[in-house]
């Protein structure tokens, strides 16, 4: 049987332990330690709910006991698709505590993606929240739970309705004795993250207790997050940026407070900044203009805010320069990836570096190379693909040995697919991409995945999806479609057909253009370069 995941080579792992990057603690350890050391301190705020470190640790114990009683066993996978609510944080750490692996699905995913994640992970349970109207994930989750052979349980935060699922509150109320502390190795996976992806089906990223914990703690240090920090989670909590850069895990690891925002609007967020004394928060570039505008007219006091992190896609230099003056705080650019590597501009970097680069690697043990098409290093100032390996960058995807051969070099470097320029100082500037992906407002869309769905739409004979520059989204997705028969389906027909197939709304092409044929390269592959040019011309 092929291995589910690839650990770091033994000598490399030893080096990371000896240099103090990795330790033996599991990811939930800071909650236990926090409860013992500063149990009264505020850990988590969700609306009117306020949990101290002692409260949070107790809730995690109770839900861990409830899950173990179902049973959910150590090593099993559980898919979480939850909004920014306290239940997300509690369930995440409860699963970690019993040694089960949370699979972190973003709320924006559609049933098709969730089903594919369940299949790849072999999840034994799904956890979703009651929602409204089209955004209610319960009916699809109930269907997936009934059809997927691996799934034994559906757990619903809120009212399970007619799903046949179990109410999350019942886990909390189970009142069973907390399970014995899991003694598993910290060098085993703690959870599975979703890759932005370039393939037809989403790929999973195994992150270990040791590597993820280090990622979170080191990030906290680089971002000035300590016991007095109040971190506002505006982006989806299940995204890696919100998890460990330094996010929820980094803030809780250093004794700070996490505040969950139910939505990313500046009006909601500014109210929370004032009420809770928020010191740091994180956005994707697409949200920044609305925040800057609202900052000019808000009556809320934003004086507590020290750092605004921006990352997930490229922030333009002009907008970057407006952040500090408009919000009265420091900008920090973050260029990260769920596979590992985090680059940050540092809080004491000169303004020019902060506003024109995407920062430099977090760890002294991060190895980065910028290479040409033949894999040869290029000098500073010359664009090339960024390769990386280090103490918190995976060596392979989950159950995907064939893909690994493409996405990793033989000596273990992850091929990021990002084109960067390294400055003389060692800062990175993201200038493009070699991977077949659209980065739509920070949400990653694998072109192949959408193309495969488009081929399932009646009337479509061939399709190619590319990104085009967009003033609001950064990039919008454009589908070039060759009709089968007389009429080519338009954007509305395509939208309806893709949603009916369970595709997430953000993956529906923003534009659909009919073409007689797709341009081909010399070897007969679809040539996306001319398509990108045409898409950009509008
Ligand atoms: C973050 O993680 P993912 O896994 O959703 O996406 C990673 C990819 C990168 O390979 C790059 O293509 C793009 O997103 N990206 C950026 C960027 N930050 C990420 N491109 C340009 N400028 C940036 N600042 O997006 C992520 C994970 C942790 C922290 C922050 C972002």
UniProtKB/TrEMBL annotation:
Cited Pfam families: AMP-binding, AMP-binding_C
Domain of life: Bacteria
Residue intervals of the AMP-dependent synthetase/ligase domain: 32-398
PROSITE patterns: AMP_BINDING
Domain AMP-binding enzyme C-terminal: 449-525
Keyword Ligase: yes
GO molecular function, one term: acid-thiol ligase activity
InterPro entries assigned to the protein according to its UniProt record, in alphabetical order: AMP-bd_C, AMP-bd_C_sf, AMP-binding_CS, AMP-dep_synth/lig_dom, ANL_N_sf, ATP-dep_AMP-bd_enzyme
Keyword entries, A-Z: Ligase
Protein name: AMP-binding protein
Organism: Streptomonospora mangrovi
Lineage: Bacteria, Bacillati, Actinomycetota, Actinomycetes, Streptosporangiales
């Amino acid at each position: 049987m092929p291995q589910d995941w690839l650990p770091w080579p033994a000598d490399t792992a030893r080096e990371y332990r000896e240099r103090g990057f990795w330790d033996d603690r599991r990811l939930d350890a800071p909650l236990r330690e926090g409860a013992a050391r500063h149990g009264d301190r505020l850990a988590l705020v969700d609306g009117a709910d306020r949990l101290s470190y002692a409260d949070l640790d107790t809730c995690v114990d109770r839900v861990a006991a409830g899950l173990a009683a179902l049973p959910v066993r150590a090593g099993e996978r559980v898919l979480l698709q939850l909004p920014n609510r306290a239940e997300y944080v509690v369930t995440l750490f409860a699963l970690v505590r019993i040694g089960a692996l949370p699979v972190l699905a973003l709320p924006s995913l559609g049933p098709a993606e969730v089903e594919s994640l369940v299949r790849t992970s072999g999840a034994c349970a799904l956890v979703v929240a009651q929602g409204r109207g089209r955004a209610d994930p319960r009916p699809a989750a109930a269907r997936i739970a009934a059809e997927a052979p691996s799934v034994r349980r559906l757990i619903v935060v809120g009212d399970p309705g007619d799903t046949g699922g179990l109410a999350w509150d019942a886990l909390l109320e189970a009142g069973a004795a907390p399970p014995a502390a899991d003694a598993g190795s910290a060098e085993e996976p703690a959870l599975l993250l979703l890759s932005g992806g370039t393939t037809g089906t989403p790929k999973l990223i195994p992150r270990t207790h040791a590597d993820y914990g280090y990622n979170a703690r080191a990030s906290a240090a680089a971002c000035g997050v300590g016991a007095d920090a109040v971190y506002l989670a505006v982006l989806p909590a299940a995204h890696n940026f919100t998890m460990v850069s330094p996010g929820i895990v980094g803030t809780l690891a250093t004794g700070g407070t996490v505040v969950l925002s139910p939505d990313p609007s500046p009006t909601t967020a500014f109210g929370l900044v004032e009420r809770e004394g928020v010191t740091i928060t994180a956005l994707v570039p697409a949200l920044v203009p609305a925040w800057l505008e609202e900052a000019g007219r808000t009556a809320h006091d934003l004086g507590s805010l020290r750092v605004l992190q921006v990352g997930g896609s490229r922030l333009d230099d002009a907008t970057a320069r407006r952040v500090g003056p408009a919000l009265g705080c420091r900008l920090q650019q973050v260029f990260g990836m769920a596979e590992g590597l985090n680059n940050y501009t540092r809080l004491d970097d000169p303004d020019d570096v902060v506003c024109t680069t995407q920062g430099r690697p977090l760890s002294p043990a991060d190895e980065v190379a910028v290479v040409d098409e033949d894999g040869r290093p290029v000098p500073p100032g010359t664009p090339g693909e960024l390769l990386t390996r280090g103490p918190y960058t995976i060596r392979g995807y989950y159950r995907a040995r064939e893909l690994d051969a493409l996405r990793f070099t033989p000596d273990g470097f992850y091929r990021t697919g990002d084109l960067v320029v390294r400055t003389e100082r060692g800062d990175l500037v993201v200038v493009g991409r070699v991977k077949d992906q659209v980065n739509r407002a920070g949400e990653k869309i694998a072109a192949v995945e959408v193309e495969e769905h488009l081929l399932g739409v009646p009337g479509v004979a061939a399709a190619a999806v590319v990104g085009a520059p967009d003033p609001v989204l950064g990039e919008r997705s454009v589908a070039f479609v060759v009709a089968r028969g007389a009429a080519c389906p338009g954007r509305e027909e395509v939208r309806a057909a893709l949603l009916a197939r369970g595709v997430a709304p953000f993956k529906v092409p923003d534009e659909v253009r009919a073409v007689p044929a797709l341009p081909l390269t010399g070897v007969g592959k679809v040539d996306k370069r001319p398509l990108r040019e045409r898409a950009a011309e509008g």
